[in-house]
């Protein structure tokens, strides 16, 4: 059975590692990008089934990643965005650009897994 | 050899000024070379340190994640977890590595919640990092103490409260603010009890931070703020007034009425604002009776209160200040009159002889 591919765009290396460990345990194949630019490259080369993206990232923000995916690549891949406290406006912008779900930091990795399963229908 | 002789002869026969210039040039050139060598040394040392930090960070991140996923449901440490804890215990003896581990833990604790967050706290206890934070509280340097308190706050160590409480009135504002934030972050409204013992001023910035922290929590059940409204520390009174306004403390209205005769003008003005917010109709008559004894700022605040709580029987009072010399009071009086008696207000446009006042009346008409 083919593993579902997930691209994770997150600049906090510890959190990335934690999520990679958790999601790989759940049977997903994870590709980690440390900034928005790397995320765009990974999305284009890996054609993931789902994207997890932080909003605030170096070089290219999470919003730009969503915009690129929806408007330039015309892909409908589900996107979950992570936001910190006080980024409510950014979350609204993310939804307007085409994000499917969001999780406010700090979040529970278990809850994230449930949301991923719901979006991927697994 | 001939060349050297030529240079020596040239130097010996040169005027003193030229010799001096040569000396200065030689010193500067040597200086530049020495500085370039130092710079190269510092840069390579920093690069080596940063590479080392990156290497250790990767190593500790992996160990931490392994620790977090090696637990079982019993809540006790498993064998792999014990092994990781002992490895970390060895590492934290070095200050550099200890800082690195704390930063890794701190970064992750800010991003995850629930069981993971609790596990990180357990890791902090088990590795003994908590003792180093307690040690920092004993330091003679204020910045070390502030960092120690900040660390204990981030990891939610509530048993440090007795050790941290003595810093409530610390001479350094940074230590004080860390202490106050610690109290409120860990004990919510109960943590505000530090206000009882606060002898120094509570800065506007820390007040904002405390209010922001309080609003983050689900439990918004506030305790009795009356003791702080009666505090001898004016900054505490001002902070309590903010609490009264944000948390709609209708039950403290009587105490607020007493504050209208407080010695501090700032407190009196803020009290009027809070009473306006809490519909303190009782304050209206009292302030009306003493209106002329109030300062200009209090008079403006009172008119703002009146704008909210105006009743038809206030009309004669308002009329008396329709053409007050202060622009803000005049504007508010006209707005209130327009609200309660529009016909009389329209009549003003015909009866007013003063061009300036007439312009004001017309301006309020379009508001």
> How many structural domains does the protein architecture of chain A include?
1
Alpha carbon gyration radius of chain B: 34 Å
Radius of gyration of chain A: 13 Å
Shape of chain A: globular
State the helical fraction of chain A.
Answer: 40-55%
Order of helices and strands of chain B: HHHHHHHHHHHHHHHHHHHHH
Low-confidence stretches of chain B: none
Which consecutive residue ranges of chain A, at least 5 long each, have pLDDT under 50? none
Q: What best-fitting shape of chain B do the alpha-carbon axes yield?
A: flat
Your description of this structure?
The complex is a heterodimer of chains A (122) and B (367). Chain A is built from five helices and five strands. Chain A is α/β, with parallel strands linked by helices and 122 residues long. Chain A has a single domain (5-120), classed as Rossmann fold (3-Layer(aba) Sandwich). Chain A has a five-stranded parallel sheet with strand order 2-1-3-4-5, with helices on both faces. Chain A is globular. Chain B has a domain at 53-127. Chain B has helices at residues 2-13, 16-69, 79-91, 95-109, 115-126, 129-136, 142-154, 161-164, 173-191, 194-197, 204-216, 226-229, 234-246, 253-259, 265-277, 281-289, 296-309, 315-320, 327-340, 342-351, 355-365. The model of chain B has no long low-confidence stretch (mean pLDDT 91). Classes of the chains: A alpha/beta (122), B mainly alpha (367). The A-B interface holds A 12-15, 17-18, 21-22, 25, 85, 105-111 and B 57-58, 61-62, 64-65, 68-69, 104, 107-117, 216.
């Amino acid at each position: 059975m083919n593993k579902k591919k997930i691209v994770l765009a997150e600049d906090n290396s510890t959190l990335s590692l934690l999520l990679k460990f958790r999601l790989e345990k759940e049977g997903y194949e994870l590709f980690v990008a440390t900034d928005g630019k790397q995320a765009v490259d990974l999305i284009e080369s890996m054609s993931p089934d789902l994207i997890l993206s932080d909003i605030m990232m170096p070089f290219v923000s999470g919003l730009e990643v969503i915009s690129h995916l929806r408007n330039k690549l015309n892909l409908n891949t589900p996107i979950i965005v992570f936001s910190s406290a006080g980024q409510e406006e950014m979350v609204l912008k993310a939804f307007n650009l085409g994000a499917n779900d969001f999780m406010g930091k700090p979040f529970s990795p278990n809850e994230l897994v449930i949301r991923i399963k719901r979006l991927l229908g697994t | 050899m001939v060349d050297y002789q030529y240079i020596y002869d040239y130097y010996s026969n040169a005027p003193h000024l030229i010799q001096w210039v040569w000396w200065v040039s030689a010193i500067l050139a040597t200086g530049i070379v020495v500085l370039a060598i130092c710079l190269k040394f510092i840069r390579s040392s920093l690069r080596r340190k940063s590479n080392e930090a990156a290497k250790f960070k990767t190593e500790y991140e992996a160990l931490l994640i392994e620790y977090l996923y090696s637990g079982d449901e019993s809540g006790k440490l498993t064998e792999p977890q014990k092994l990781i804890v002992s490895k970390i215990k060895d590492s934290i003896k070095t200050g550099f590595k200890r800082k690195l581990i704390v930063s890794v833990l701190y970064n992750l604790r800010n991003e995850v919640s629930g069981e993971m967050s609790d596990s990180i706290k357990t890791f902090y206890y088990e590795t003994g990092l908590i003792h180093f934070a307690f040690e920092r509280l004993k330091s003679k340097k204020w910045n070390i103490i502030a960092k120690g308190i900040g660390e204990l706050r981030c990891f939610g160590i509530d048993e440090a409260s007795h050790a941290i409480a003595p810093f409530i009135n610390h001479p350094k504002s940074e230590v004080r603010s860390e202490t106050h934030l610690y109290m409120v972050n860990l004990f919510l409204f109960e943590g505000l009890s530090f206000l009882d013992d606060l002898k120094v001023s509570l800065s506007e910035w820390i007040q904002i931070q405390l209010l922001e922290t309080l609003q983050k929590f689900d439990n918004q059940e506030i305790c009795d703020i009356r003791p702080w409204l009666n505090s001898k520390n004016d900054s505490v009174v001002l902070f309590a007034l903010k609490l009264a306004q944000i948390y709609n403390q209708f039950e403290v209205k009587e105490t607020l009425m007493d504050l209208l005769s407080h010695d501090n003008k700032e407190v009196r003005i803020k009290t009027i604002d809070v009473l306006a917010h809490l519909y303190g109709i009782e304050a209206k008559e009292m302030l009306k009776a003493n209106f002329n004894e109030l300062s200009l700022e209090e008079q403006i605040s009172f008119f703002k209160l009146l704008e909210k709580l105006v009743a038809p029987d206030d009309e004669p009072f308002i009329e008396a200040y329709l053409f007050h010399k202060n622009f803000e009071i005049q504007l508010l009086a006209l707005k209130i009159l327009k609200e309660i008696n529009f016909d009389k207000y329209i009549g003003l446009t015909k009866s007013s002889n003063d061009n300036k006042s007439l312009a004001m009346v017309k301006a309020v008409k379009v508001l």
